[in-house]
Amino acid sequence: MSQKNDPFPNKEHKGQEFEKADMSGAHFNGVDMSNATFWAVLENAKFNESNLKKCVFDDVNLAESVYENVNLSGAKYHNINLSNSSFRYLNLSNAEIDDANLEGMKINGVLVTDLFKSWNKNR
Q1: Distance from chain centroid for Cα 78
Q2: Rounded to whole angstroms, what are the CA distances from 94 to 13, 19, 67, 74, 75?
Q3: Which of 12, 29, 59, 119 lies 20 to 30 Å from 49 when distance is taken between CA atoms?
């Protein structure tokens, strides 16, 4: 895409706030959005080689979004729809998930609900 037609010609958007924005289907390739805050619709968004460190996602629709090689360290998610989303090359060290609907969620092809059933049975 030429710079003339590129809505985000600057690849740095550190600390920006995206409020009530419909960014459905947006592609974020190599973008630094660290410390940004989102109150937006990002359904079917694609994040690739991007920095989302310490971002805040509050009341955001991220359904069917795709994340590949993305830095989400320190990011905060509250009231988020991640249904049918895909994560690859993911580091979840020290991540916490509370009050989540895990139905149909898989990690490395294994249903998380099955993992919990097995864990509860064997503890």
Answers
A1: 12
A2: 26, 29, 19, 10, 12
A3: 59
**Rounded to two decimals, what is the model's pTM?**
0.79
**Nearest-angstrom CA–CA distance, 90 and 47:** 13
Tokens of 73: 């360290």
Q: What are the φ and ψ backbone dihedral angles of 92, each rounded to 5 degrees?
A: -105, 20
**Residue 34 token pair:** 């660290």
* Among 32, 83, 48, residue whose Cα is nearest residue 62: 83
CA 87 to CA 77: how far, in whole Å?
Answer: 15
pLDDT tens, position by position, 46-104: 999 999 999 999 999 999 999 999 999 999 999 999 999 998 887 788 888 889 899 99
